[in-house]
Every structure is written in C-alpha cells, then in structure tokens.
Amino acid sequence: MTTSAVMQNRVLLLNGSTWEPLAVITVSRAINLLLAGKATVVEETGDVLRTMRDYFAIPSVIALKTYINVPRRKAHWSRKGVLVRDNYTCVYCGVKPGAVQKDKVLSRSDMTIDHIIPRSKGGKDTWTNTACACASCNHRKGDRLPNEAGLKLRWEPKTPRTSYLVIALGTGPSAWRRYIEV
Ligand SMILES: [Zn+2]
C-alpha cells in the first residue's frame, strides 16, 4: 500500500474508559494522538506506514487514555441512516443486496423503510419504530403489526449513538460496527 493510500484511511476515535465513539479522524491525527501519548490502539488495520526513520502500524480504532466529557448528541433520524444502521438487510427475512428475490438481483435501492407500528396506527419516524425491509416483506406486512402479518423481527431496532457515525459506518470498515452500535 502506498503512503498516500494509507493516509486516506480513517480512524475511529473512542472516548477514554467508556469506549464511546467520539469521531472519525484522519490517520495523521490518530498518529499524532498516539505519539503524544494521548491515545492507545484498539484495532489495527494491518497496514503499515513507513517514514524515513520509523514505521507505524496503521490503526483502525484508537481510544483516548483519559475520559473527556462531551455532550451526547442525539442521533437525527433519517431513512438513509436506518438503511445504513441495518446494513441494508431486511429485518424480517434477512435478504440483502446481492441476493436473488423473484428472479431479480436485489440492489440497495430495492430496500425500503418499514414502520414497525404503521404510520396509520400512530407509528412515528423514530429509530426504534423503523427498520430496513425488502419490498416483498414490506408489501406482505402492509398496514399491520409484524405479528398480525406473521412476520418476526430478526433484531430489535436501536437508536444509534450519533447520526454522523451511522453514516460513517456505511462506508467505514466493519471492525467499527461493534464500537458504534448501542
Ligand atoms: Zn424481507
């Protein structure tokens, strides 16, 4: 890997002691924090950055050595955020883009947002009331509750820690997932 490609990687920064995600930062900022003794490596990418004098294992996740007090930002609900949170996977049948359904290869644009309690019954646009669903399951469910339609949730939809990090997760390495999910 070239130096410039390595430097384009992004690093997930966690808070000290709680390991709550704080931000997505550049490799150079992460290395600066590590060199200053302010952070420790939690996960490595496996890539190495060589300089004239030294080499560094490129981190994927680092944590501050001390806890910093930051106000909790509430995650703003969005359709895109729900799809990314659920990794574009149907909460009812588990299909995801790339799978074949009714002789068609599913793409991300085939995945829809299902309101678990339908909007017609007062269900809101919230993180815990919405999940990714394939068009087929969404159609089958219609205006009913999952159990009324004979459907089961494969996981419980949760509120992510920050909407910014949910979007970052969509493009970030899978190693970040366990640190971002609540
Ligand atoms: Zn489905």
Quick structural gist:
With 182 residues, the protein is an alpha+beta fold. It has six helices and eight strands; from the N terminus they run αββαββαββββααα. The protein folds into two domains: 82 residues, no CATH class; 71 residues, DNA Binding (I), subunit A (Orthogonal Bundle).
Mean pLDDT, nearest integer?
88
Total domains? 2
List the ligand species.
zinc ion
Number of helical segments with 4 or more residues:
6
Which ranges are low-confidence, i.e. pLDDT below 50, for 5 or more consecutive residues?
A: none
- The share of residues in extended strands comes to 25-35%
Structural class: alpha+beta
Order of helices and strands: HEEHEEHEEEEHHH
List keywords for this structure.
DNA Binding (I), subunit A, 8 strands, alpha+beta, binds zinc ion, four-stranded mixed sheet, 182 residues
Describe this structure in words.
With about 180 residues, the protein is of the alpha+beta class. It has two domains: about 5-70 and about 170-180, no CATH class; about 80-150, DNA Binding (I), subunit A. Helices cover about 25% and strands about 25% of the residues. It is built from six helices and eight strands; from the N terminus they run H-E-E-H-E-E-H-E-E-E-E-H-H-H. The chain has helices spanning about 5, 25-35, 80-85, 135-140, 165-170, 175-180, and strands spanning about 10-15, 20-25, 40-50, 55-65, 100, 105, 110-115, 130-135. The strands form three sheets. It has a four-stranded mixed β-sheet with strand order 2-1-4-3. Helix 3 (about 80-85) crosses helix 5. The longest helix has 9 residues, at about 25-35. The model has no long low-confidence stretch (mean pLDDT about 90).
